[in-house]
Design a protein that fits this description.
- The complex is a heterodimer of chains A (148) and B (177).
- With 148 residues, chain A is mainly α.
- Chain A is 60% helix and 0% strand.
- Chain B has 177 residues and is an alpha/beta fold.
- Chain B starts with a helix and ends with a helix.
- Classes of the chains: A mainly alpha (148), B alpha/beta (177).
- The interface between A and B is medium-sized, with 14 and 18 residues.
C-alpha cells in the first residue's frame, strides 16, 4: 500500500531544470518566455546542455542576464540577441542560416537531390533500352532448342 | 559523362573525408571572440587591492596591452602566473580583470605569488565577463593601441603561446602604432 502510494508520486514528477527559485521572475508570463528562450541557448561551458539545463555558474549568470533583459522590456529576439552578440551564434542550439552553416542547412536536401537525380537517370535509361529483335538465324535456333 | 558518374562520388567522398579530418583537429570548446577587431566594451572597476587604483577599458590605449581575465580559484591561472611575472618583468603591460572572485582572495594571491599587473579590476559578479564573452578563466585579450581587441587567448599563456603567438602579434601591433 505504502509502495503504491509512493509510486503515485511519480505521476506528478516533472523533468528538473537547473533554474533556481531565486532566479525566477515574479511575472509567470515573463518567466515562461525566459524558460523558452533559455532552452534554445547553449551553455558555453558544458556545450551540449542548454543554459536551462546546466548548473554551471556561467549558465546561471546567463539565465539571470536573460531575465533582466526580459524584465527590462526586451522582446524575445532582443533578449536572445543580447547573449548572441557576446558569445556568437554558436550559443544558439538551433543554428541560424548564415554563410558558415549553409552546408548544414542545404547539405541534406542537396544529397537527396543528387540521389534522386541519379536514381531517376538510372530508371529512365533502363526503360529506354529497347531489346533488339532476334535475327532470323537466332529465332530458328531458339525454335530448335525449345523443340527438344 | 559516363566517366563523370563514376568519378563524382569518389570526389565527393574525398571532400567529405577531408572535412571530417579537419573537424577532428578542431576543438569545439574554443569559441572565436565576438569582439575581434572591435573596441573593448566600456567598463571601469575598482582594484582588488585595498588603496590601489583600479582600471577601465579607457586606460587600455596608446600602446598594445594584454587584458588577462583570472581568478584565485582558477587552477590554470596559477599555472600561467609565473609566465605573466616574466612578461611583466620584461615590460609587457598586463592588466588583470578578476573574474567571479572576492577581492581579498585575489589580493592574497598577488601578495603571496607576486603581482604581474599594472592594475587590477574587480568583476565580482562576472558582468564584465559576460560583456567580454568570457567562458572560463584564464582568457587573455590582446588589445591594440586604439583599444580594439585583436586576439583572444583561451586558456593559460604558456611559454609556447607567448613565443609563437602573442609575442609576434604584439610586435606587429607596436609597429602599427
Amino acid at each position: 500500500m505504502t509502495r503504491a502510494f509512493l509510486l503515485l508520486w511519480l505521476v506528478v514528477a516533472t523533468p528538473v531544470a537547473a533554474v533556481l527559485p531565486a532566479e525566477q521572475l515574479p511575472d509567470p508570463q515573463q518567466e515562461a518566455r525566459a524558460r523558452t528562450i533559455s532552452r534554445g541557448l547553449r551553455c558555453v561551458q558544458c556545450q551540449n546542455q542548454s543554459i536551462d539545463d546546466s548548473e554551471a555558474p556561467i549558465a546561471h549568470d546567463l539565465r539571470v542576464v536573460l531575465r533582466e533583459r526580459i524584465a527590462a522590456g526586451a522582446s524575445d529576439v532582443e533578449a536572445r540577441d543580447y547573449i548572441v552578440q557576446r558569445y556568437g551564434s554558436y550559443v544558439l542550439l538551433k543554428p541560424p542560416v548564415e554563410a558558415g552553416t549553409l552546408f548544414l542547412w542545404l547539405g541534406p536536401a542537396a544529397f537527396v537531390a543528387i540521389g534522386g537525380i541519379a536514381a531517376a537517370l538510372t530508371v529512365t535509361r533502363r526503360r529506354t533500352i529497347e531489346p533488339t529483335p532476334l535475327t532470323p538465324a537466332e529465332a530458328a535456333r531458339v525454335d530448335t532448342l525449345l523443340d527438344h | 559523362m559516363k566517366r563523370l558518374v563514376f568519378i563524382l562520388p569518389l570526389v565527393v567522398l574525398t571532400g567529405v573525408l577531408i572535412a571530417f579530418a579537419a573537424g577532428l583537429r578542431h576543438d569545439p570548446s574554443i569559441l572565436p571572440s565576438q569582439l575581434l577587431n572591435r573596441p573593448l566594451p566600456a567598463f571601469a572597476r575598482a582594484s582588488v587591492q585595498p588603496g590601489q587604483a583600479g582600471f577601465g577599458s579607457a586606460m587600455l590605449r596608446g600602446q598594445p596591452t594584454l587584458l588577462n581575465v583570472w581568478a584565485s580559484w582558477c587552477a590554470a591561472c596559477k599555472y600561467e602566473h609565473p609566465v605573466l611575472m616574466q612578461l611583466s618583468a620584461a615590460g609587457v603591460p598586463i592588466y588583470g580583470l578578476v573574474w567571479k572572485d572576492t577581492a581579498p582572495a585575489a589580493a592574497a594571491v598577488l601578495a603571496t605569488s607576486g603581482n604581474p599587473y599594472r592594475a587590477t579590476a574587480n568583476d565580482a559578479d562576472g558582468r564584465i565577463g559576460i560583456d567580454l564573452g568570457i567562458v572560463a578563466a584564464p582568457e587573455t585579450f590582446v588589445v591594440d593601441g586604439h583599444g580594439r581587441v585583436r586576439y583572444k587567448q583561451i586558456g593559460p599563456i604558456t611559454p609556447e603561446v607567448w613565443a609563437n603567438t602573442l609575442s609576434p602579434l604584439l610586435a606587429t601591433l607596436r609597429a602599427e602604432g
